[in-house]
């Protein structure tokens, strides 16, 4: 089992106001996770897609970040755990003073100050299951360039872990 929690931002474009349904299919691809949660950022509601295979919601015309998909093995009973599961990329970036800019197969990681410990940099598939690339390095104040192999293609999640702080970014190579 995977011990990490992975977040995927789900951007939606709703052209017609009304009721809409999100259905969970191919859940057999998520066997490494105890919970597959859909978090509705508008209502604050969690939906466990392993027990409820569909979520129906009302929306006016909308475009943006309405949902977060959370893949985890953590229990979500405590309020602090729920808050940590719903933190999105921008709040993690602000908290760690780190910004990530993609430039093809390279990433410019800017930090506001030298980090006193090594950071683990991983590139995983969009399901968070398969580690495709991994390296450890120490970030210094300013720009830090990370280059991944050019043969890597597709949608991936870049995960940077420094101590107990995690920053993620969805990337298309």
Quick tags:
173 residues, mainly beta, Immunoglobulin-like, 4-stranded antiparallel beta sheet, 2 helices, 13 strands, 52% strand, globular
Blueprint (SSEs and pairs):
Blueprint: E1 6-14, E2 18-23, E3 35-40, E4 45-48, E5 54-59, E6 62-72, H1 79-86, H2 89-96, E7 98-103, E8 106-111, E9 119-125, E10 131-137, E11 142-147, E12 155-162, E13 165-172
Can you walk through the features of this model?
The protein has 2 helices and 13 strands. The radius of gyration is 17 Å and the shape is globular. The longest helix is centred in the middle third of the chain and has 8 residues, at 79-86. The chain folds into 2 domains: 6-86, Immunoglobulin-like (Sandwich), CATH 2.60.40; 89-172, Sandwich (Immunoglobulin-like). It is mainly beta and 173 residues long. 9% of the residues lie in helices and 52% in strands. The protein has helices at 79-86, 89-96; strands spanning 6-14, 18-23, 35-40, 45-48, 54-59, 62-72, 98-103, 106-111, 119-125, 131-137, 142-147, 155-162, 165-172. The two termini are 27 Å apart.
């Amino acid at each position: 089992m995977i011990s990490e929690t992975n977040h995927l931002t789900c951007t939606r474009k709703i052209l017609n106001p009304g009721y809409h349904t999100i259905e969970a299919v191919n859940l057999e691809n998520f066997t490494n996770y105890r919970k597959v949660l859909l978090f509705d950022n508008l209502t604050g509601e969690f939906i466990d897609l392993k027990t409820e295979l569909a979520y129906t919601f009302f929306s006016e015309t909308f475009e943006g970040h309405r949902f977060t998909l959370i893949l985890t093995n953590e229990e979500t009973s405590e309020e602090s755990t729920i808050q940590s599961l719903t933190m999105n990329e921008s709040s993690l970036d602000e908290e760690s003073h780190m910004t990530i800019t993609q430039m093809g197969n390279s990433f410019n990681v800017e930090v506001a100050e030298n980090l006193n410990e090594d950071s683990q940099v991983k590139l995983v598939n969009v399901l968070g299951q398969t580690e495709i690339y991994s390296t450890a390095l120490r970030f210094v104040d300013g720009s830090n360039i990370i280059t991944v192999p050019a043969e890597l293609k597709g949608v991936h999640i870049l995960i940077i872990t420094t101590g107990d702080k995690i920053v993620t970014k969805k990337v298309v190579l």
